[in-house]
Amino acid sequence: MITQPLIGGFLTTYAIILSLSAALGLGLSSWLSGDDKNFSLDAGLGVLLISLLGARIGFIIRNLPYFIDQPGEIPQLWLGGLSWPGALIAAGAAILGVHLIWKEPLGELADSYLPLLGVLSMAIWLTGWGAGIGYGPQVSGWFGILVKDSFGMTLKRFPLPIIGATLSGLWIASTILFPLKRKRKPGFRAAIGVGGIVLINGIISIFRIDPAPLFGGFRWESWFSLGFLLAVTAYLFLQKENS
């Protein structure tokens, strides 16, 4: 487990930066949502809270043996420990819930939260760098970045966090801004955007060396990325067949 330095006895730098990034991303999503700004903001807050819960549950499941021995740490989010696959699954479920309860168009709803996804993806990589999460192998070249790893050693390592943050931001920005050659159904941009983020995380996860449970020689998020991308590919294929 990685323990973050506390600010005021409770908050951490990691938590503060993620909170500010979530606020920025939610504000951008609300601003781009057109006439439904208030609804987008309110629903987005719910999506964020459920995503946070899913991220924590995913991390607990991934590290279940540890939490069986230390159950008191389960609610202590300020110690660190979130899972992006868990957050993504929970966010999808939350958006589906908003669609079913308030009858908002599902595709348009998913598309509207792409800015939130982009800002948070970048923030997670960069805050993970400071928290000693998601680092790569040790290097000696000029391109290396200093990382304090989970063992307390500060070494120059391959810049996986910077690569992840940069690619995530560029991908979401291009997904939102790039003009499509022909009209696509609502939800197409969301599928492309989320699929790209998962692909980026999946590829980078292969090169991460921070400690994590392995399954079949790979991190579990690598397997999640593969399964998710197969699902997105099937969705896009069906969209093409029905267009």
Can you give a write-up of this model?
- By secondary structure, the protein is mostly helical.
- It has one domain (6-242).
- Helix content is 64%, strand content 7%.
- It contains 9 helices and 6 strands.
- The strands form 3 sheets. Strands 1-2 form a two-stranded antiparallel sheet. Strands 3-4 form a two-stranded antiparallel sheet. A two-stranded antiparallel ribbon has the order 5-6.
- Strand 3 (145-148) and strand 4 (154-157) form a beta hairpin.
- Helix 2 packs antiparallel against helix 4 (84-102).
- The model is unreliable at 1-10 (pLDDT under 50).
Mean pLDDT: 87
Order of helices and strands: EEHHHHHHEEHHEEH
Structural class: mainly alpha
Low-pLDDT runs = 1-10
Taken as a percent bin, the fraction of beta residues is 5-15%
Helix content: 55-70%
Biggest sheet strand order reads: 1-2
User: Radius of gyration from the CA trace?
Assistant: 18 Å
Shape: globular
Count of separate structural domains: 1
* Count of alpha and pi helical runs: 9
Sheet with most strands: 2 strands, antiparallel
Give the beta-strand count: 6
Oligomer: single chain
- End-to-end C-alpha gap: 48 Å
